[in-house]
Design a protein that fits this description.
- This protein is an alpha/beta fold and 216 residues long.
- It has a single domain, classed as 3-Layer(aba) Sandwich (Rossmann fold).
- It has seven helices and seven strands, in the order H-H-H-E-E-H-E-E-H-E-H-H-E-E.
- A seven-stranded mixed sheet has the order 3-2-1-4-5-7-6.
- The protein is globular.
């Protein structure tokens, strides 16, 4: 994988490699019916979705058996790698089994969703800039991509650049993905759990698809 092509230009060599480079399909073949952030962080995700009015036709990227909406959107599409987990997602109206690391192109038509979210998973993308560009393709005008994350990971599958970064640096990394994609407006970054919170910290970075940015 050429980081200049898939990960994005300017990242250090090895930034997008993992400790475990075995096919991701094998790693994610076994269902994991667990939550990857604690209850307070989960509430913070839902609060953000409410504040941003994430509703309508929504795509949940790298999803699992639960999407952290307080109230599910009108039409929720969940995209992930484990079919039993996606099938168990009660909020989902549509389920898509797809590996974004193997193929960053989302199997949906252009301008087919209002907003996209990605919770506790952006750290596993090996070709994030390519993925962000294709998210912009499937977003309708004014659509947003909202990434939320904490400091808990599957260490063998997170990219090395993420593993060795601080929380603040991870926010900047996701912001760089938006910037280097060239198809989103300026990203907004926020910590969504209080600094004194003793559980999992919850951070968010999101941006709006630029007007006219919709690539075939």
């Amino acid at each position: 994988m050429d980081p200049g092509d898939d990960g994005g230009p300017g990242f250090a060599p090895g930034f997008f490699t993992r400790l475990d480079e075995v096919d991701d399909a094998a790693f994610y073949a076994v269902p994991r019916f667990v939550t990857h952030i604690d209850d307070a962080a989960i509430v913070a995700v839902g609060d953000l979705y409410d504040e941003l009015c994430i509703d309508g036709d929504v795509l949940d990227l790298m999803s699992s058996w639960v999407s952290h909406f307080h109230t599910p959107p009108r039409h929720l599409r969940v995209l992930g790698m484990n079919e039993p987990e996606l099938r168990s997602n009660a909020a989902a109206r549509e389920r898509i089994v797809h590996d974004l690391n193997a193929d960053p192109r989302i199997p949906l038509p252009a301008e087919s969703v209002d907003d996209a979210v990605c919770c506790a998973s952006v750290d596993y993308l090996t070709r994030p800039v390519a993925v962000f560009r294709d998210v912009a393709r499937v977003l309708r005008p004014g659509g947003r991509l909202v990434c939320t994350f904490s400091n808990r990971v599957f260490a063998t599958k997170a990219i090395r650049g993420w593993l060795y970064a601080t929380d603040e640096e991870r926010c900047r990394i996701v912001g760089e993905y938006f910037d280097r994609s060239g198809v989103f407006g300026p990203p907004i970054t926020a910590r969504r759990t209080p600094p004194e919170h003793r559980g999992d910290p919850l951070y968010a970075v999101w941006a709006v698809r630029r007007e006219g940015e919709n690539r075939p």
